[in-house]
Amino acid sequence: EGALEVGDVLVKIGGEFVTNFVTLEETLDDNVSTTLEVVVERGGEEVNLRIAPGNLHDATPSGFLEVCGGVVHPLSYQQARNFQLPVGSVYVAEPGYVLGLAGLSKHAIVTSLNNVPTPDVDAFARAYAGLEEGSRVRLQYFVHAERHRTKTGLLHFNSRWYPPAAFYHRSWRTGRWERTLLTIPDEPNEPDAKKRRKAGDSREGDEEGNDDDDAPAVVPVVEAVSTSESNGTRAEGVARAVEPSLCIVQVDIATVALADGVYSRSFEGSGAVIHHDPSTGLGLVVVDRNTVPIASCDILVSFAAFPCEIGGKVEYLHPTHNFAVVSYDAGALPRRARESIRPIAFAPPDSVPPSRGDEVVLVGLSAQLRPMARVSAVTDATSVAAIPSADIPRFRAVNEEVITLDMDFGYNFGGVLTDFEARMVALWASYAKPVNGEVRDMVRGLPVAPVIDARDEVLRWRREGKRGAGSVRLLDAEFDVLQLAKASDHGVPHEWVERLMRADPVRRQALTVASVVADTGAAASLKGGDVVLTAGGEPAVSFRGVERAVRACAPAQPLHLRVLRKGEVVDVTCELSEEWCAGTGRLLHWAGAQLQPTHRPVAELGFRPTDPSTGAPLDVFISRWYHGSPAQRYGLYALNWVASVNGIPTPTLDAFVDATKALEDGAFVRLKLIALNARPKVLTVKLDLHYWPTWELRRTTDGTNEWERVLL
After folding, report:
1. Are 322 and 291 in contact (CB under 8 A)?
2. Is this structure's pTM higher than 0.85?
3. Cα angle at 419 between 415 and 420, to 5 degrees?
4. What number of other Cβ atoms are within 10 A of residue 537's Cβ?
5. Element (H, E) at 397
6. 363, 549, 620, 712: which could join 536 in a potential S-S bond, CB 3.0 to 4.6 Å?
């Protein structure tokens, strides 16, 4: 550089004429770092130069830095030649989790991090090591296709899902890449400070005199809207009243935390604040489960009432209904936000639910956090969601009635349905519906009754001093709807048809058992095709009616059902189950396979193998595998249960850990698997504990709903 120019014709090197590449390469290889006399012809004139050939090994990366699943290393000579860039720039080979969320793609060049220039990987590592856990910092980069346009991203430093950042260097003696943890620099003038702080530990703006504006927040007053006004005026009035309760929920899931068959790593949807108490620090947001599908995720809540964001935690995941409750620290918000945000009002429990022809107001938020609203009419308040099972089992709404409107607003418009007094009657929720191997989103109204129940349960747990989520009682059966017009064809006696008709002249339906959850009380008592006539002594004409019968049962009391089975009316007693409302709380990574307890959508398929010796159901389920791992190499794929390891039964994750913890690197392991179709299989896996160690992600047991990574 600086000597040769584009267009120069090479004549001599080291005093010898050069007429072919073989001679040129031999001369350069024999004179690395030695100054050579070079003669070129430039514009018809002979020019003499002195050039020292460089060592290609010095320009070839011999190590890389791994950061939260991403890989950065110095830009190699070959890529520098392709991109016309200096050798040694910070090159992103794989963005991973944190860099990917900042918007970086493969082949990006990072120029600065946290306003610190990063001309090389060492400078990038120093800047990265100084980041605070939970902080959000600016990151500048460009891509080679647009090298003259510098882009800016926001890096949210969240490292809990991955091992600490580390350099990897290849050992020429062993051939392995050895790992060296990235050293976190000491803080100047604070020798006793923690090496890694957590951003947001101090509540900035809460101290006296720190607020930019001490004026009280303006909170809209909810007023009844006159029915004589135009639809646009009525919708605008409701939107302004509901706006302080609306928010956008953003969810990101690390690759190593993709549990329960979730189909994407990023979700976004509208939510509504259902509880906000800065004095206790508890805030609750309700959102659909197509936005918050699992518990192992990072959540960011953005409020419409005041421009601020705050992290959230999964507080409640309903196992059958399409909603989740997310908590946030209401006391950590800026003062203006604490005063501006307010929980949405619900329609009174004794009010008449929406019915066909009623007008409601659909209120949602745009991407710019501005409210959108319009008046719509209910076309069907008793429609069945009817979400089929996916090829890869994941959450789906079961036994759920939804509200449909007279207009299709598209799958990306979420929010709430309210009456004209700005009281929420339904969550306008997104449903993931599998169609021909693809996921199609549909949006329907979820009535608020189960949401109110969940909110009250969470508040009750908190009042009792319990942290974390509790459970909900369920009848573990999925029902289909049988129209009364066809009930007689299925053998339902006419007197029962008339009784069901009198119980609900609107729905005009009965419920039939479509499937049962494996290894539950329902599986022992109910059969596919049973027509449920009564539940708890009351006619069973709706999903909500069955839920009320379940809730009316005392603890440990079974539910009494009367069903039509094979043409005969029989009484059955069904044991109810307590289903955990916190989702999967443990993910074990072994040999590049992700193991977890059997999640409910798998058991909903109706099959769950058992341990032959004890009869206990197997609870070690493979939900994912990773490319390049021993799991891929030896065929240890997802959707299988692990029944035994080297002949030792493994009914639980703890039993699996006990059976594998003594195995050494390079050992061959014999596994017995059972697939979803009940087919057994035996295979052998060779361990590679150097690159694929055994570790797990698990929710802490202190009730904080935090996650930790533990190396086993």
Report:
1. no
2. yes
3. 115
4. 10
5. none
6. 549
